C-alpha cells in the first residue's frame, strides 16, 4: 500500500508541476486553456475558474493542459439545428444556448444554416419568428450554454497559433523547465535537511555490527592510509577497498591531532536491484561526513541539478547510439510499471531517499520531454522554431502527419517497455 501511495504522490507531483508550467506561461501569453487535467480517464473531481476547468482523473498516469487552437475547437452546431441566441447591443452573439436548462431572457430562437467558430466566427441562421435569414458575428467573449454550464468559445486572438514564436516557444518549454526547477527545489531541501556528503575521507557515522564498529572507528576519524596507500578522498577510499578484494586492511586513522592504526576486514554487501538481480560490493560500515550551511545548500542544489541533468543527457545519447550500433535493449528503459516497482523499493528506504528519487525523476522527465520527437514538447518546439527561422509555419497536413507518426511511435515504445517491465518484475 505504501508503494502505491508513494507512486501516486511522486507521479502526481511530477506531472502537476510539469503541466502547471505550461498553464502559467500559456495564460501569461494570453492563450486560453479550457482544461488543466491531472491523470487520465474519467473525471473524479472538477472545478472551474477563469474559463479553465481543473480536473483530477482516475488513472494517475500523465496529465495535460488543453490549449485553445484551431484544431482543438469542436463545433457542436449542424445545419438544421435549432438553438437560442443571446446577443449584445452590437448584435454580436454572446451565448449560444443548446438546451432549455437556463435562465436567460430576451433570446432569439433560430435554425442554423451555417456556422464557423474557428476562422470567420459567425452563425448564419433563420429566425423562427419571421423566417428571416440573418448572419450573426460572434462576440470576443462568447459561450456555449448546456446543462447550465458555460463553455467559452476561444476567440482567434486567444489561440495558441495566434501568439508570437517566442510566446509559443516559452509555453512549450515551460513544462520541462518547471521539472528542472522542481528538481532544484528538492535537492536544495535535501541539503538543508541532511547536508551535503563531504568528499573528505572523514567518518560521519559508523553502522552497528560492522567491521568498522568492531575495529573501533568513530565519527570524526580521518582515514589517512589503507595498506600503506594514501587516501585522497572518499571516492578514492572506496576504490582502494574494492581493489583490495576483501583482504584485511591496515588503516592509519587521525583524530584530534593524534594517529592510530586500525585493522579490519571488509564484508560483502548484497543489494537487490529493482529488476530482481543483485549487486555486490565490499564495505566496512562507515558513512560520509556531512557539510552544512545557510546559503551553500542553494548552490549545491543548482550544482546537483546540473550534474544530474548532464549525466542523464549522456545516458540518453548513449541509448540512441546503441540503437544505431545494434546494442539497444528495452532493459535500458522503464515504463510506468518499472517506475512503480522502483518507487515502491525507494519508499521503503525512507522519506529522504524518496525525495532524492523524485528529484532525479523530475530531471529525467524534463530531459525526455525536450527530445525532438513529435508529440513530445521537444518535437512541438521544433515546429515553432521552424516557423521562427523560415518565417512561415510548416504545412498543416505535413505537421499533422508527423505528429501522428510520433504518437504511434511513442505508443509502440510504451507498449513494448510496459511488456518488458511486466516480464522483468512479475513473470
Short description:
The chain is α+β, with helices and mostly antiparallel strands and 427 residues long. It has helices at 2-28, 165-194, 211-215, 234-243, 296-325, 336-347, 351-369, 377-390, 396-426, and strands at residues 35-49, 52-66, 82-87, 93-97, 108-116, 122-127, 133-146, 149-153, 196-197, 203-206, 222-226, 229-230, 249-255, 258-264, 267-272, 278-283, 286-288, 290-291. It has a 5-stranded mixed beta barrel with strand order 3-4-7-6-5. It has a 4-stranded antiparallel beta sheet with strand order 12-11-13-14. It has a two-stranded antiparallel sheet with strand order 1-2.
What does this 3D model show about the protein?
- It comes from Salinicoccus cyprini.
- Its cofactor is Zn(2+).
- The chain crosses the membrane at residues 169-192, 350-371, 400-419.
- It is a single-pass membrane protein; Multi-pass membrane protein.
- There is one protein chain.
- By secondary structure, the protein is an alpha+beta fold.
- Among the domains are: 82-153, no CATH class; 197-290, Roll (Pdz3 Domain); 296-426, no CATH class.
- It has 9 helices and 18 strands.
- It has helices at 2-28, 165-194, 211-215, 234-243, 296-325, 336-347, 351-369, 377-390, 396-426; strands at 35-49, 52-66, 82-87, 93-97, 108-116, 122-127, 133-146, 149-153, 196-197, 203-206, 222-226, 229-230, 249-255, 258-264, 267-272, 278-283, 286-288, 290-291.
- The longest helix is centred in the last third of the chain and has 31 residues, at 396-426.
- The model has no long low-confidence stretch (mean pLDDT 89).
Amino acid at each position: 500500500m505504501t508503494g502505491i501511495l508513494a507512486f501516486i504522490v511522486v507521479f502526481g507531483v511530477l506531472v502537476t508541476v510539469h503541466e502547471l508550467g505550461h498553464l502559467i506561461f500559456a495564460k501569461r501569453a494570453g492563450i486560453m486553456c479550457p482544461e488543466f487535467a491531472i491523470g487520465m480517464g474519467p473525471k473524479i473531481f472538477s472545478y472551474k475558474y477563469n474559463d479553465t476547468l481543473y480536473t483530477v482523473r482516475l488513472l494517475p498516469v500523465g496529465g495535460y493542459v488543453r490549449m485553445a487552437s484551431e484544431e482543438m475547437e469542436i463545433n457542436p452546431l449542424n445545419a438544421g439545428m435549432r438553438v437560442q441566441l443571446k446577443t449584445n447591443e452590437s448584435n454580436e452573439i454572446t451565448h449560444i444556448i443548446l438546451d432549455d436548462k437556463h435562465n436567460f431572457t430576451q433570446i432569439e430562437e433560430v435554425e442554423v444554416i451555417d456556422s464557423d467558430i474557428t476562422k470567420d466566427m459567425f452563425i448564419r441562421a433563420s429566425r423562427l419568428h419571421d423566417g428571416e435569414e440573418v448572419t450573426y458575428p460572434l462576440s470576443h467573449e462568447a459561450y456555449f450554454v448546456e446543462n447550465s454550464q458555460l463553455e467559452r468559445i476561444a476567440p482567434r486572438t486567444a489561440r495558441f497559433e495566434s501568439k508570437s514564436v517566442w510566446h509559443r516557444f516559452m509555453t512549450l518549454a515551460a513544462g520541462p523547465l518547471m521539472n528542472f526547477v522542481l528538481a532544484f527545489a528538492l535537492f536544495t531541501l535535501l541539503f538543508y535537511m541532511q547536508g551535503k556528503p563531504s568528499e573528505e575521507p572523514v567518518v560521519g557515522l559508523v553502522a552497528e555490527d560492522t567491521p568498522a564498529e568492531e575495529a573501533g572507528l568513530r565519527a570524526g576519524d580521518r582515514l589517512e592510509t589503507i595498506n600503506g596507500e594514501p587516501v585522497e578522498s572518499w571516492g578514492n577510499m572506496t576504490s582502494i577497498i574494492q581493489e583490495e578484494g576483501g583482504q584485511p586492511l591496515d588503516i592509519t586513522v587521525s583524530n584530534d591531532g593524534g594517529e592510530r592504526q586500525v585493522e579490519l576486514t571488509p564484508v560483502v554487501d548484497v543489494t537487490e536491484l529493482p529488476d530482481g538481480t543483485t549487486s555486490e560490493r565490499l564495505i566496512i560500515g562507515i558513512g560520509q561526513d556531512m557539510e552544512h550551511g545557510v546559503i551553500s545548500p542553494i548552490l549545491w542544489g543548482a550544482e546537483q541539478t546540473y550534474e544530474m541533468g548532464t549525466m542523464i543527457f549522456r545516458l540518453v545519447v548513449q541509448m540512441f547510439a546503441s540503437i544505431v550500433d545494434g546494442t539497444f535493449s528495452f532493459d535500458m528503459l522503464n515504463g510506468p510499471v518499472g517506475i512503480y516497482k522502483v518507487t515502491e523499493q525507494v519508499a521503503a528506504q525512507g522519506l529522504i531517499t524518496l525525495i532524492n528519487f523524485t528529484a532525479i525523476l523530475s530531471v529525467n522527465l524534463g530531459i525526455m520531454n525536450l527530445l525532438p520527437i513529435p508529440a513530445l514538447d521537444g518535437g512541438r518546439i521544433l515546429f515553432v522554431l521552424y516557423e521562427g527561422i523560415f518565417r512561415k509555419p510548416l504545412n498543416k497536413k505535413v505537421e499533422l502527419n508527423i505528429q501522428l507518426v510520433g504518437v504511434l511511435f511513442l505508443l509502440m515504445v510504451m507498449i513494448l517497455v510496459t511488456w518488458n517491465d511486466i516480464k522483468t518484475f512479475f513473470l
